[in-house]
Write a structure and sequence with these properties.
Blueprint: E1 27-30, H1 36-47, E2 51-56, H2 60-71, E3 77-81, H3 87-101, E4 106-109, H4 124-152, E5 163-168, H5 181-201, E6 206-213, H6 222-225, H7 228-235, H8 246-257, E7 268-271
Parallel strand pairs: 1-2, 1-4, 2-3, 4-5, 5-6, 6-7
Bound molecules: beta-D-glucopyranose.
């Protein structure tokens, strides 16, 4: 069977490229990888065969513990401290990444935080910190990654794409969240950043997608699950009846990073136990 190419619109079937089942030999950067979802994704990438840079902004020990765990999978891992909201620090991080690993194939734009406040009390610092890390951070890292993907191009022995970017969003890219206007705004921004980038760079064989986690058991939201009362309240919002674990998100990330999802472009994968299904309407409305 002949390969279909863009200049051969009548040819049928998938392009004649090798679909790699996992991530052997790929180089990944995960931001905010010393805890929570980022940690889970970084470890899963290592298990899937990728070398991983573990970015963190604070917490050397936890970052080095993640590195140690990843190295136990027989791949390379390095920790790198950088604030993703700083253009200079992000540029330095990518220089180091390329120096150490030669290139990068996968960016998981994960670093994110909350600075919650009633809107009338929200300070400009709370607003700027959340938008700076959650949204500008993804923009700066994506720009550096795309530049490197384009410099290197497709290496068929590694992946059939020139590069993959996964933008960690949230159900709050859809669900408005009073008391968290800065956070919800950042996630709504990530949705359109991700989609606009995906549209722009897909012709260059770069795939950009998003993951929208629901309530996941991480340090960002301990108040939502730590006590039995809070957990019971939380479950009213989760049709599937359990909190998410970082591994639930990690499995989705591995799939989106691999050639298994080669035709998935500009999509947000909701991994939320049904939180976006308006569970209140199962009995009301
Ligand atoms: C937030 C968590 C919250 C979850 C569901 C996430 O994006 O970071 O604090 O529990 O959304 O509301």
């Amino acid at each position: 069977m002949s390969a279909s190419t863009p200049s051969d619109p009548q040819a049928s079937g998938a392009p004649d490229v090798k679909i790699h089942p996992l991530l052997t030999g790929q180089k990944a950067l995960v931001t905010g990888a010393n805890s929570g979802i980022g940690r889970g994704v970084a470890i899963a990438l290592g298990r899937a065969g990728a070398d991983v840079m573990v970015n963190y902004v604070a917490g050397d020990e936890s970052a080095h513990a993640v590195v140690k765990e990843i190295c136990g999978c027989g791949v390379k891992a390095i920790a790198y401290q950088a604030d993703v909201s700083s253009e200079e620090q992000v540029a330095g991080m990518f220089r180091h990444l390329i120096q150490e690993f030669g290139t990068v194939d996968i960016l998981v734009n994960n670093a994110g935080l909350q600075r919650d406040a009633a809107f009338r009390d929200m300070t400009l610092a709370q607003w700027n910190t959340v938008l700076g890390v959650n949204l500008t951070g993804q923009c700066l890292c994506a720009r550096e990654a795309i530049r490197e993907f384009l410099r290197r191009g497709v290496v068929p022995a590694v992946s059939c794409a020139a590069g993959k970017i996964i933008c960690m969003s949230s159900v709050h890219q859809e669900i408005p969240w009073g008391g968290h206007a800065n956070y919800a705004t950042s996630k709504g921004g990530i949705k359109l950043l991700m989609e606009s980038l995906a549209q722009e760079v897909a012709p260059l064989r770069i795939r950009v997608n998003g993951i929208a986690p629901g309530a996941v058991r991480t340090p960002i939201n301990t108040s939502a699950w730590q006590t039995p009362e809070a957990y019971t309240e939380l479950m009213k919002l989760v049709p599937y009846g359990r909190i998410g674990e970082p591994e639930d998100i990690a499995r989705a990330a591995i799939w989106l990073a691999s050639d298994q999802s080669d035709y998935v472009v500009g999509t947000t994968l909701f991994v939320d136990g049904g939180m976006t299904l308006y569970p209140g309407f199962s009995t009301g409305g």
